[in-house]
Amino acid sequence: MDKKRDLPHAIVIGTPKSGTTTLCGALMRHPDIYMYPKKETHFFNDLFTKRDMEWYKSLFAPAPDGALLMEGTPDYAMSHCVARTAERIADTIPDAKLIMMVRNPIDRIESHYVQMLSNAREVMPIDEALDKWPEIVGTSDYGATVETLRQHFPDDQILVLFLDDYKADKDAVHAQVLEFLGVDASEMALAALSEQQALHKRENQGMDGALLARLRQWKYYDRLNMLMPKGVIAMGKKLLRKPLKVPSELPPKTRARLEADFAPKWAAFQSEFR
């Protein structure tokens, strides 16, 4: 591995609500990998025009010599930004390897809806939310996402994983990832990754209170969020969020419509990548 490298060799780009937190946490345990511990740098989407390259490189400065550098930002694969994100990554790190984890598209939509509401300040029916945030649905069109990535990266730099495979056999998926990355995939390395057994579940879903919503608009919020320890951030959110009580399942008519739309896409995607 290049000892002087200061940009990631690989990026977990998505998709949101598909197990990426668990995967990144597992890869963080590998002795030859430096996974930026905060997750979700958002450099190539939200922060591209707010932070310079030196800031991004500084995130990987603590890595030991020879480590494979990684970060994970699942929003990179969101439908409303994946085109510009893929182009930016390709322009900056043309040899980057991209990992994309997916799940049943309808289940992902339901989970993403709850997350989007938790970051908003208003409760709305799911149909209304899907109209307001079309990327919730669009991000589940995984075939379109991969085709966008292929405009900038060859297939041997793109790895697609399935959440249900990960749930069924973490060791097999970990071995697949390590082989893709070109790092040690021995039994000892796999055992280190598998110390994290449970899939990450977002705790205590809630909605931003007025103060937290205002803090998110503060120009230094992103920088503060990067610098603060995870435990402090979690405690602050518990204090500044209010309970979110909304139905998390799609209305039957909406589900039927989405299933009719996604069934052929999902079948074709699985046929190609499984």
What does this molecule look like?
- The protein is of the alpha/beta class and 274 residues long.
- The chain has one domain: P-loop containing nucleotide triphosphate hydrolases (Rossmann fold).
- 48% of the residues lie in helices and 11% in strands.
- It has helices at 20-27, 53-58, 82-92, 105-118, 126-132, 135-138, 142-150, 163-168, 170-181, 187-193, 210-217, 221-227, 230-240, 252-273; strands spanning 10-14, 33-35, 68-72, 97-102, 158-162, 206-208, 241-243.
- It has a 5-stranded parallel β-sheet with strand order 2-3-1-4-5, with helices on both faces. Strands 6-7 form a two-stranded antiparallel ribbon.
- Strand 2 (33-35), helix 2 and strand 3 form a beta-alpha-beta unit.
- The chain is globular.
- It starts with 9 loop residues before the first strand and ends with a helix.
- The model has no long low-confidence stretch (mean pLDDT 86).
Q: What strand order characterises the main sheet?
A: 2-3-1-4-5
Mean pLDDT: 86
The domain count comes to 1
What name does the CATH topology carry? Rossmann fold
What descriptors fit this protein?
274 residues, alpha/beta, Rossmann fold, five-stranded parallel beta sheet, globular
In brief:
The protein has 274 residues and is α/β, with parallel strands linked by helices. The chain has helices at residues 20-27, 53-58, 82-92, 105-118, 126-132, 135-138, 142-150, 163-168, 170-181, 187-193, 210-217, 221-227, 230-240, 252-273, and strands at 10-14, 33-35, 68-72, 97-102, 158-162, 206-208, 241-243.
